[in-house]
Design a protein that fits this description.
Blueprint (H helix, E strand, L loop, with lengths): L8 E4 L7 H9 L3 E6 L22 H5 L4 E5 L5 H13 L2 E4 L5 H4 L4 H7 L4 E6 L14 H8 L19 H24 L3 E6 H8 L1 H10 L20 E4 L4 E4 L4 H8 L10 H6 L1 H12 L4 H10 L4 E3 L3 H5 L2 H5 L3 E6 L3 E6 L23 H7 L4 H9 L4
Parallel strand pairs: 1-2, 1-4, 2-3, 4-5, 5-6
Antiparallel strand pairs: 7-8, 8-9, 10-11
Length: about 400
């Protein structure tokens, strides 16, 4: 079966989650993704430790988002490396990069340079704040973006310091936008034959992720404050949040307070069962519900609440996820073999296609694993390849 993106060639200069997770999706769907890395050491994230540890010298973070790619090592400052990139660009459909704005252009590898070689090339650049503007020279990283964009300031209890999320969700969301934008560019190219430059940024994504809250803030002229007792979002009413039970934790989402009160034995909650009252008295309501839920187990309450279609769920940790029946049903965890790390479990492909399913065909590459193959395909002789390697070009 032909894969959806089979025949699409991607030159991938990205590193960290913003780019590699996005280009991994393209590789999963059949694209040939050529990951261009530094000689010997590869991209920065190969050495990023998780809790201070590496897996046989390799970062599990790197392994999580670099399957279905080929690794080509090049010293981009060497003119001979630029010649190789230009040769690859002639047949490439897509280029992705997330260097600081202007870095590749100064090396002669920016969009304006590559479109002279291939006018139909699609060039997607990711950055912290965009290609220009007052923040263009600032470092762009998930925690910094969550802080600057207002996300951290809305998370946590009223007296807590602003609280970031535990996962790099702005990076991940921008990676998805990068993949989506690449597909829009490729679709436009297929229709018109024209390439274009596309810019995505962490900061713009973080603002867009808050479209609901920012629109409410700008149109209602209301300033909210974080709950003192732990309502899960500053703009939402009780009972929204996480609650302790006798044996763990559970989440209650948006629900009728009258129904919740009937189930947990708090008929007084019916007196607050309007959006305005549920919000104004959220810090009175939550402790009452908490006092009831802690008297029995999570499963006990889930059975009762789900039977009345109350939106609720157990709070699971990663140990729970490994045995979760829906995770297994969706085939979200896969086992692959890596030549250095051995057998490893990774997150699989989260989207299902009836006719063109994604597949895991290549393990995350070792540094420069495919350099000789790619250069041979370009017409380089073994002697030329050896000379380039000896001189540190590859």
């Amino acid at each position: 079966m032909m894969m959806a993106l089979e025949g699409v060639r991607v030159l991938d200069f990205t590193q960290m989650m913003l780019g590699p997770w996005g280009t991994q999706f393209l590789g999963d769907m059949g694209a040939e993704v050529i990951k261009i890395e530094r000689p010997k050491v590869g991209e920065w994230e190969r050495g990023l430790a998780a809790m201070g540890e590496l897996l046989n010298g390799t970062s599990p973070f790197f392994l999580a988002m670099n399957r279905n790619k080929k690794s080509l090592t090049l010293d981009l400052k060497d003119p001979r490396a630029k010649v190789i990139i230009y040769e690859l660009a002639k047949t490439a459909d897509l280029v992705t990069e997330n260097f600081r704005p202007g870095v590749l252009a100064r090396l002669g590898l920016g969009y304006e340079d590559l479109k002279k070689i291939n006018p139909s090339i699609v060039y997607v650049a990711g950055s912290g704040y965009g290609p220009d503007g007052p923040y263009v020279s600032r470092p762009g990283q998930d925690l910094l973006i969550q802080s600057l964009s207002g996300i951290a300031a809305q998370t946590g209890r009223g007296d807590d310091v602003p609280t970031p999320t535990a996962t790099s969700f702005v990076d991940a969301s921008t990676a998805l936008l990068l993949a989506f934008s690449a597909m829009v560019g490729l679709f436009h190219k297929a229709r018109t034959g024209q390439g274009q430059r596309i810019d995505v940024s962490l900061f713009s994504t973080a603002i867009a992720l808050q479209c609901q809250e920012l629109t409410a803030f700008m149109t209602l002229n209301l300033h909210w404050e974080r709950s003192q007792t732990g309502i899960g979002a500053p703009w939402l009413s009780a009972p929204f949040g996480i609650y302790r039970t006798q044996d763990g934790y559970m989440a209650l989402s948006m629900a009728s307070l009258a129904v919740v009160g009937e189930i947990v034995g708090l008929p007084i909650l019916a007196d607050y069962d309007t959006p305005k009252l549920a919000y104004e008295h959220r810090d009175t309501i939550r402790p009452m519900i908490q006092g009831k839920l802690v008297t029995d187990t999570t499963d006990h309450w889930l059975d009762k609440l789900l039977a009345r279609d109350v939106w609720c769920a157990k709070v699971q940790d990663f140990d729970d996820l490994l045995t979760d029946p829906q995770v297994a049903h969706n085939e979200l965890l896969q086992t692959i073999y890596h030549p250095e790390a051995g057998e490893i479990r990774v997150v699989g492909i989260p989207v299902k296609f009836s006719e063109t399913p994604g597949t895991i065909r290549l393990a995350p590459p070792r540094v420069g694993e495919h350099t000789e193959q790619i250069l041979t395909d370009l017409g380089y002789t073994p002697e030329q390849i050896q000379s380039l390697r000896a001189e540190g070009v590859i």
